[in-house]
């Protein structure tokens, strides 16, 4: 049986151990998060850089990022920043918008970003020399994924054609949103119309997945497709229901047959299929 003098020794040890566990939990929650979604730290969708083979530079301070726990890139547009520069990136660097108040007949311009470039698009579209080398921050269009050197950028056309994956993309100037106030400080947007962009072929791809399911592969799939598509087309089922995601799929013009990709395990796929069945959506195998 424990004596009073034993408790006087055990209690400080227990308290110290408890504080250690709490500190570890808080560190993992606030400083080791793999994903900082839009609205958490601004208008970019920040994801922690985990590819140690990739050389990146901060898009704000232009310092070389050395793959520590506080370095992120926006998986929608590719902007990179360390944690202290994220507020500056949110304030001064535009991200891909899911909808713009621009006529669908008006050509979209490139959205040039500097930061995390995809490996397969690392040649300058003008001079065909290598981009994304250390000590040199080049540009990449967040929509068409073309890369260009700073000196070559004035030589490239302003109009963006949405690149090699355009048949899968819903352009932001073809999306109409309705915004309603949700509470005192927040607003929630709903898709009410999707217009035909007018190009052929056009088979918009909708990606549904759950970043919390399985071993985390769903999160990587969602992150990859946010870079390739309109972020509207990539739905995290941890935040939205399949019904909400699939509702606006029915708004796609009949000429554009939508493709639905389920990113997850058997449970996620079954959830999506059951929702499609309950909504009586017309699907083809």
Describe this structure in words.
Helices cover 23% and strands 19% of the residues. It is of the alpha+beta class. The chain has two domains: 34-161, Wheat Germ Agglutinin (Isolectin 2), domain 1, CATH 3.30.60; 164-280, no CATH class. The strands form five sheets. A four-stranded antiparallel β-sheet has the order 1-2-5-6, with no helix packed on it. Strands 7-8-9 form a three-stranded antiparallel β-sheet, with no helix packed on it. It has a three-stranded parallel β-sheet with strand order 13-12-14, with helices on both faces. The relative contact order is 0.10. The model is unreliable at 20-33 (pLDDT under 50).
Listing every helix as H and every strand as E from the N terminus to the C terminus, the arrangement reads: HEEEEEEHEEEEEEHEHEH
As for the CATH topology of the largest domain, it is Wheat Germ Agglutinin (Isolectin 2), domain 1
Helical coverage, percent range: 10-25%
Spans where pLDDT lies below 50 across 5 or more residues: 20-33
> Which CATH-level-2 architecture of the largest domain?
2-Layer Sandwich
Instruction: Calculate the terminal CA-CA distance, rounded to whole Å.
Output: 70 Å
Structural class based on helices, strands and sheet pairing: alpha+beta
Number of helices: 5
Q: What fraction of the residues are assigned to beta strands by DSSP?
A: 15-25%
Overall average pLDDT? 78
- From the spread of the alpha carbons, the general shape counts as globular
The top-level CATH class of the largest domain is: Alpha Beta
Question: How many E strands?
Answer: 14
Characterize the biggest β-sheet: 4 strands, antiparallel
Number of domains: 2
Strand ordering within the main sheet: 1-2-5-6
| Rg on CA atoms, Å | 23 Å
Domain DAGKc: 200-285
Protein name: Diacylglycerol kinase epsilon
Pfam families: C1_1, DAGK_cat
GO molecular function, one term: ATP-dependent diacylglycerol kinase activity
